């Protein structure tokens, strides 16, 4: 298949979508982007790369970081983790509080904010210190991307100041004893890993292990066991787009994870990882043109998991 040509066709067809939707502004520093930007990268298991658009422009990975932290926590805690964070779709927005109250502080899955905050809390506990935890998360991402990935301090500080809802989620979970560390230590670590800056090429590279049964195909290192990789992919399919996860599975048909920075990663098992970037979001907080581009990709190539 001529992936370069396919990406160029998608880029052309996507143009009318690039002016639709809105950039996230509830974290003020996220507004500082070029609103109509578009980039898409494909990385095959053998290392071949195909790119279009501003593929070397770094953007805030936001909730895509939840895939990294969950992979680390699942590796450390295995099934023990499920008593603190479940694996069911929530059917609710990513920052919703309601379900958490009547489900006694156990978040539905690791890809909504509450679940990711618990996951991060488990890493702070394991590494015994918030600074060591963020360093380990950074090392994990550096190893997968073969690059040096950095935090954007402005975005981090912006969310630290305005993340009232995440603070509410953390406090609510603490009241049910599902946050073990001081809330600030856990939230600072969470906000920091949301603020890593990466481009589509780097993100596609980091996701290759999930397309290859848990082993990085470029280095042959086992990042996670194949059964755990299966679980992460299934969570990406069922929960990776919050209350639009069904919609994403319906239209795209791949495990995927979005972030409010405008990025989406998707996995084609045994073949490739894809990343698309376009910062304007739909009403559910997922990249509008990015979702459309991935839908076009599976329509043109027939490469969905179904
Ligand atoms: N969906 C997202 O990307 C949300 C991540 C963001 N840092 C938040 O906690 O609100």
From TrEMBL:
Catalytic activity reported: L-glutamine + H2O = L-glutamate + NH4(+)
EC number, UniProt record: 3.5.1.2
Keywords: Acetylation, Hydrolase
Biological-process GO terms, alphabetical: glutamate biosynthetic process; L-glutamine catabolic process
Keyword Acetylation found: yes
Keyword Transmembrane helix: no
Annotated InterPro entries: Beta-lactam/transpept-like, Glutaminase
SUPFAM superfamilies (alphabetical): beta-lactamase/transpeptidase-like
Highest taxon above the source species: Bacteria
Name of the top EC class for this enzyme: hydrolase
Amino acids binding substrate: 63, 113, 159, 166, 190, 242, 260
Subunit-level organization: Homotetramer.
NCBIfam families assigned: Gln_ase (TIGR03814), PRK00971.1-2 (NF002133)
Annotated family: Belongs to the glutaminase family.
Name this polypeptide is given: Glutaminase
Organism: Malaciobacter molluscorum LMG 25693
